[in-house]
Amino acid sequence: MNEQAVSFTSAGLRLHGVVSVPDGLPAGERRAAFLVLHGFGSNSESPTCIAPAKVLNEFGYVTLRFDMRGCGKSEGEFGRVICLEQVEDTGSALEFLAKHPNVDPDRIAVIGSSFGGAVGVYAGGTNPRVAAVVSNGGWGHGERKFRGQHPTPEGWAKFTKMLEEGRAHRARTGQSLMVPRHDIVPIPDHVRQNLERQGSRMLAPNSVEMFPAETAQSMFDFRAEEVVGKIAPRPLLLIHAAKDSVTPTEQSVEMFKRAGQPTELHLFAGLDHFLFAEKSTRVWNMLRQWLDAYFPEKM
Question: Domain 2-143+220-294: which topology?
Answer without folding.
Answer: Rossmann fold (3.40.50)
